Amino acid sequence: MSDSDSTSPALKEIFNLERLQHIATEMTAVYPAFDAKAFLKLAQSGLAELSVMQRMARVSECLHAVLPLDYEASVDVLRALAPRLNSGFVSMCLPHYVARYGAHAFEQSMDALKYFTAFGSSEFAIRHFLRSDFERTLTLMHGWSLDDNEHVRRLASEGCRPRLPWSFRLEQVQADPRLAVKILDNLKADTSLYVRKSVANHLNDITKDHPEWVLELIEGWSLDNKHTAWIARHALRSLIKQGNSRALAIIGASGKPEVEISEVQVNPPVIGLGEKITLSFVVKSTVEDTQRLVIDYAIDYVKANGGTSAKVFKLKALTLPGMASETVSRGQQIKELTTRRHYAGVHAVHIMVNGERLASTQFEIV
After folding, report:
1. DSSP letter at 255?
2. pLDDT by residue (tens digit) across 299-324?
3. Do 282 and 221 contact (CB within 8 A), yes or no?
4. 3-250 is classed in which CATH architecture?
5. Most exposed: 35, 49, 201, 221, by fewest CB within 10 Å?
6. Beta strands, E only, the chain
7. Could you report the per-residue pLDDT of 102-139, keeping only the tens digit for each?
């Protein structure tokens, strides 16, 4: 994700003063000698200027500063704290503690990350161990990909994503995706949607650098399994939006779309920020054969400098009989997001079928 994500006011408030007090209270419950007053004084200092990730780091650093215990004993206390925290995101300060202070105790640290991941995620923390001791850490993660716990299996994939948002890139995996292929292969038919999303995102990361490698890998999978087919569709989403013929063939879409797009409109055509638009159009086959179509739409968002930046959205997959037509519509609220700010101006909207732009319209934000 972008830097703006981690400085979003809404996200920053995950670690507000009330949450810090909650952490201090629960720490005192599991470790009565905990100096809650000292912790709160340190944690609150300059809090307003910190991003959400900086606040997460601040919490683990302040816990370390006031715990009069060695690393091993501190981790035992934090393991008792984990199930008492009232936010999964907040609990990620515990894996951060392990990454920050546990490099010298590899086995205990790995066991702690495996435990903590069920309460939030250890995806950011494990990357520090991959950076410092890649082979040893990745070998352990191979085993995690076969674990009974879906959170641990998901960590095996998510933790070694080459382009994990909010974290540094894993340059070794980015350069050679074969390094993590054993993990992906173990999880390619996972019954957990939580795990499948991670596998798909991992593969989508790889398509940014090695699209042909991902296509060859998935072409070698049996997509008769519904879980594997789901991963394939979502892993190839960026290539599908680009109209990649091999990606489209994998998901069963026809090649060049033989269709006409008509009655394209956005209603209302002029809106204020926070209001909803509805995009609608008719897609009509121009041939006798049944076609498998992937329909997306792109919005050219106006930027602060007056330029535009396109964002492609998945709309639907459609099996269209010969000479048939179907009306397609989608509503979307135009509101501020942590990942996108909106600016006044005319926004073009483009209808894309099997990656080809076939029609356009527009709406205006005032």
Report:
1. S
2. 999 999 999 999 999 899 899 999 99
3. no
4. Alpha Horseshoe (1.25)
5. 49
6. 259-267, 270-271, 276-285, 291-302, 308-320, 325-333, 345-353, 356-365
7. 999 999 999 999 999 999 999 999 999 999 999 999 99
Homologous superfamily (CATH) for 259-365? Immunoglobulins (2.60.40.10)
Give the residue from 92, 97, 75 showing the smallest Cα distance to 30: 75
- As a whole number of angstroms, the distance between CA 125 and CA 112 comes to 11
Q: Which two tokens stand for residue 316?
A: 């639907």
State how far the Cα of 244 lies from the Cα of 237, in Å rounded to an integer.
Answer: 10
Query: Cα–Cα distance between 209 and 28 in angstroms, integer?
Result: 48
Per the listing, tokens 């926004």 go with 347
- Euclidean distance between CA atoms 47 and 366, whole angstroms: 35
Cα 124 to Cα 158: distance, rounded to the nearest angstrom: 9
**Span(s) in the chain for CATH 2.60.40.10:** 259-365
